[in-house]
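does this look right to u?? zinc ion version
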Amino acid sequence: MDFSAWNTPTTWVTFAAWFCVSYVYLAIGITGGYHRLLTHKSYKVPNWLRYFIVSGGYFALMGAPISWVAVHRLHHQKSDQPGDPHSPRDGFEHALYKWMFDMEKRQSVEEIRKQVPDLLEDKVLCMLGTDHSAKQAQLCLWVNIVARVIILLAFGPVAFTANLIASVLVFWSPQFVNTFCHLPSWGYRNYEVRDDSRNVPWVGLMAMGEGWHNNHHAFPKSARHGIRWFEFDATWMMISFFEKIGLATDVIRPTPTLSPEEIAAAKAAKAARAVKEAVVAPVSAATAESAELVNVPTEAVEAVKEKELVEI
Ligand SMILES: [Zn+2]
Ligand SMILES: [Zn+2]
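got this back:
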């Protein structure tokens, strides 16, 4: 096959345009749709826009929205504890992709119903599946195959290839959030929450702001995940734009009692004090559970704990 005919400026512009539009639409579908809109109800939009955004996640092979949301709400309730669907504490490959194959056994239909009573009222979402069965995954796969065949026939192989590459990258981005953003060896933390969540910059960029995952676990309902000036959050930019033009309402923002900088300064001051006093106190069984919190001022810990208890 002669690919030299592909190497023209027009082809590359077509490729770049299809790649960018596909990537943004599919990724926002997951981050702005499945995650911040359906799971956490971080903002509201009119129904036509809600379905348009959520469709992006379906075309990124995320499966039935109800199934996805049930898993993610469970993740927040049990994060890095027994029962978390995809904690890296149960293995890297498990967190990356293996968890998907046994969700049907680990979260029953009854448990899903308890997790997502709000979404079960939405008949359109119910049509796409209300459980973790292979049937709903196959439906999603077939819809995606048909969509790609239409792109190939209607727009040609360049558009098809660009869309396919974008789809593969977007498909893996939430899996990278589940894995790398819960591995203690990656990234950094702004907030000392009870789980292993981390902010990982390259995942933050790849997953349209979802890689600032420690911020997200500190303020699960917030529509904004990037908090510090350099934490670029493309999904938040979109939500904030929708809010400015009146399309998004009830947008929830993080309301930290202490900023990450204040918490860091308090930790540094406390550590310096401890060195000066040279007092080494044994960590008791009672404090071992929250060992990560020992250097944080009580008021900061209480503030974060309070945020952790916010309804997902
Ligand atoms: Zn998480
Ligand atoms: Zn979440």
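The chain is about 60% helix and 0% strand. idk if thats expected tbh
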